[in-house]
Amino acid sequence: MELIVQVLVSGLLIGGVYALISIGLNLIFGVVRIINFAHGDFLMVAMYAAFWLHILAGADPYLSALIVLPGLFLFGMLVQRVIVQPIQEASANMQIFATVALSLILQNLALIFWKGDFRTVQMPYAMLTFDVMHIIVSVSRLIAFLVALASILLLFAFLKYTFTGKALRAIVEDNTVARMMGIKVERLYLLAFGLGAAFTGLGGILLIPFSAVYPTVGAPFTLLAFIVVVLGGMGSMGGTFSAGLFIGVVEAFGGTFVSPALKEAIYFGIFILVLLVRPQGIFGKGKGTEEIGLK
Amino acid sequence: MNANRLKLLGILLLVATALVPVFAHSRFILHMFTLIFFYIALSSAWNIPVFGGKMSLGHAAFFGLGGYTAAILYVKYAVSPWIGLAAAVLVALIGGAVMTLPLIRLRGPFFTLASIAFAEALRMIAIDWRSMTNGSVGLNIPFRPGFAQLTFQSGMPFFYISLLLAVVVVVIAHKIRYSALGYHLQASASNDEAAQALGVNTKKAHFIAFLWSSGLSGLIGAFYVFFIYVVEPNLIFSLTLFSLQPALNGIIGGIGTIWGPVIGAIVMTPLGEYLRFYLGTIQQGLNYVVYGVVLIVTVNFIPGGIISLIKLKVLKSKGASGSVIKTKEAA
Amino acid sequence: MPILSVRNLSKRFGGLKAINDVSFEILHGEIVGLIGPNGAGKTTLFNLISGILTPDSGDVILEGTSLKSFSPVKRSLMGLGRTFQIVRPFSMSVLENVMVPILARDPNIARARAAAFEILSLLRLEQYADAHPDNLTLALRKRIEVARALATRPKLLMLDEVLAGLNPTEISENLPIIRQVRDQGITVLIIEHLMDALMAVSERVLAMDQGALIANGTPAEVTSNECVIKAYLGEEDPAC
Fold first, then answer.
1. pLDDT in the model for residue A89
2. Does the distance separating the beta carbons of B251 and A104 come in below 8 Å?
3. Of all helices (H) and strands (E), which one includes residue B153?
4. 3-state SS class at C15
């Protein structure tokens, strides 16, 4: 019984980070309407940046976020401007391959510059754990969860209460009308991509204490983010958050009780199940499901 | 250059290619040609659902299912490779059905993403299911040369086997493209809702296209395993080698056309090998960076691929034909 | 037995009742017009009948068979044809466009080609057989849309604004097609904004406003109907 609660807690905590990464995808997709195959690679870029800042300048990875995240924000805007904007009018299928190409380039540039070795950052204080009613909670996971939660709430507030946030939501609802209302859509695309990249990068930094850094570390997260977003229901921030936690828990249980190697196969199986049974997602409001092709 | 002259040229080219082993005995050359033919076959097989607008990046799944089936049957159960081929096709077909039924409703990029997940899941299962697949270690095909064992001393047999395979797949793709199925796939890609309103069962069309595509991919995978004498999860289910590469070939050659994947494979396979051996030894990963750049350039500037460049030249020499009346649609 | 029977059809989008308890019948061989101000729900009604949308309540019955739970594909195969207001030609030649529905019923390419050519000739489109729809005028594309729908061998053909966006010459060229279609033995239900055109060709007219059917009669009866006039003028009348 204790084991079950332990696994549950671990899963929930990591789920927070998954939610963070997926919300980045939700934002990019909702606003720019492009499936970014290089999404997970933003995570990788942030992790390497934090790693090298640590090696070269002794920076604490969490603190390096102050530099890395604005950097990721700019990088996201760059990607939107250089790679995505030129093909905004192309068919969706062709857009895929531009971001696939980006993913290939990013992963292999990392391979060229920094080799395939697994790098780790020693963070002694983050390895601490404490005991809550016989459940062991790791500090790094707790920090990850809390920071993720705080960021998501901040984003939510931004979207709900600021003018720019409302403009973003307007674009999500109806791109054409938003444009006609005078909203500078192209500029907001840049913002959305930048924000999405920064959020994903933050997720990467939060993972550093317990994950190695290597060129393909981000790849599984692209798929994961997609699964979380569909599971939670497109267009629903709360849904994405809950689904992120859900996937975290499923992965934890799958890894512990079935097989560590198969945990991805397990949540992919759940994804298919949901597609068959409840395509609008567990918490789906139904928004955007027609675009994916679900009804 | 009318159609008949082109056909003649094509046949001459085919005959010339078939005569290569007579003049060139270098193992390297035969190996290169064989690889090109394998990729022509796989790229053309990938291209079949593309007629309907569905671009899978998970074809390694079918390729690998076919490869593993034939290998496991031969190595563990001493089943003749030739029977193993049939079994490979069957298993790959099942894989195609399993992937397509739930996922086909997803549109464009989402389907592509889901197809990647499918192939990755299979790769992980192959790594984990040690009792069946021998895990990451993989299985080795013992070297017992003989036609019945699909193993050969010289490179010639596989040259001709893969050439035949390539021809067969391209012919099948051509037949599909100009059949009722082909028209329905195109209609669905153009406007799925309108197609359905006209009575076209588009879901069924995509499903059948994927059955063809997956079955053929499995067959190719099974042959491939006997060509390279080994099967292991990260190779046979490789995203880059057998999912991305055929798609790349198709896009660069000319997406959705019959000859696009063929041209793409002919151009990219030697290029890829060169990049891998020369640039790759200088710097691992450089070849993929080059691929990525070529892909971005193609998508941005030549979305129709090499074929569209050729068509442009042909059109220019023919001159404009037919009336072209363009009016603005009423608001 | 009427060819089409619509019974108490209702559909809501969020808070908006788009179709409100609509019932009517269409008899074999009729040409029935459907009019109503913008937003009345005419195209929504078409979408419900052709199966693209599912109603919240009510039923659509084609020649005695309820279409409930039948997909648009199935309904088309049962003889329900339609065109779309915003034309959607496929990215292929005009002839191939018309071949597509024929192939869905008989996969033989040669026969489909011949049959498609016949339909094109019927609508005086044969010279455009190898042209690409993108290069043609709107009037021609609308005719191609009708040709394609005819290729489904429908019993009932629903035309959605086939004359919208055309100039008077084009209208007078395309209008006779509607009667041509009926003379082939096909019942026609037509949405059209252009009153003169609609009244000239329809034998009976249904009028809608805000999702409800407000009149059902001959063109003369409907045009003099007070509620219909008020609907078009934008006047509200609780008695309607």
1. 78
2. no
3. none
4. coil
- Contact exists between C and A (3 or more beta carbon pairs < 8 Å): no
CA of residue B11 relative to chain centroid, distance: 22
Provide, as residue numbers in chain B, all residues whose Cβ is less than 8 Å from the Cβ of A176.
none
Residue type, A163: F
From start to end of chain A, where are the E strands? Answer: 129-132, 135-138
Angle, helix C138-150 to helix C94-103, in steps of 10 degrees: 20
Residue type, C211: G
Looking at residue B304, its pLDDT comes to 86
Q: Please identify among residues 175-194 of chain B the ones whose CB lies closer than 8 Å to any CB of chain C.
A: 178-181, 183-184, 186-187, 189-191, 193-194
Which residues is A101 bridged to in the sheet?
none
Average pLDDT over residues A131-152: 84
Domain spanning C4-92+153-233: CATH superfamily: P-loop containing nucleotide triphosphate hydrolases (3.40.50.300)
H/E element holding C187?
strand C187-191
Domains (ranges, CATH) in chain A?
Answer: 2-292 (1.10.3470)
Whether the Cβ atoms of residue C34 and residue C206 lie closer than 8 Å to each other: yes
- List CB contacts (< 8 A) between B303 and chain A: 90, 94
Amino acid at A39: H
Three-state DSSP state, B322: coil
Residues of A in contact with B136 (CB under 8 A): none
Kindly list the residues from chain C whose CB atom is less than 8 angstroms away from the CB atom of residue B200.
Answer: 73, 100-101, 104
| Model confidence, pTM | 0.88
pLDDT average, residue stretch C123-152? 92
Closest CA–CA distance from residue A98 to any residue of chain B (Å): 5
Residue B167 CB neighbours (<10 A): 16
B226 contacts B81 by C-beta, under 8 angstroms: yes
Cβ <8 Å between A98 and B299: yes
Cα dihedral A94, A100, A106, A108 sign: negative
Distance from CA of B199 to the nearest CA of A (A): 19
Give CA–CA dist C240/C235, Å, rounded: 10
The letter for the amino acid at A223 is: L
| CB-CB under 8 Å, B190 with C104 | no
What is the Cα–Cα distance from A246 to A268, expressed in whole angstroms? Answer: 13
Query: Which tens digits make up the pLDDT trace of B32-57?
Result: 999 999 999 999 999 999 999 999 99
Mutation site, C47, C84, C100, interface B, largest B CB count within 10 A: C100
Is C72 in Cβ contact with B196 (below 8 Å)? yes
Reference A18, options A250, A279, A236; nearest CA is A250
Alpha-carbon torsion C146, C148, C150, C155, what sign? Answer: negative
* Nearest Cα residue in chain A from B99: A272
The domain segmentation of chain C, as residue ranges, is 4-92+153-233
Q: What is the pLDDT of residues C194-219, one digit of tens each?
A: 778 888 889 999 999 888 998 899 98
Q: What is the mean pLDDT of residues B306-329?
A: 57
A136, β-bridge pairs: A131
Contact B198 C104 (CB under 8 A): yes
Residues 133-172 of C with CB under 8 A from B: 135-138, 148-149, 151-152, 164-166
Token readout for B16 is: 């010339």
CA distance B320 to chain C (A): 13
For residue B317, what pLDDT band results from cuts at 50, 70 and 90? low
Of B193, B322, B329, the CB nearest to C138: B329
> What is the complex's ipTM, to 2 decimals?
0.90
Interchain contact, B108 vs A87, CB within 8 Å: no
Question: Bridge-partner residues for C157, per DSSP?
Answer: C81, C188
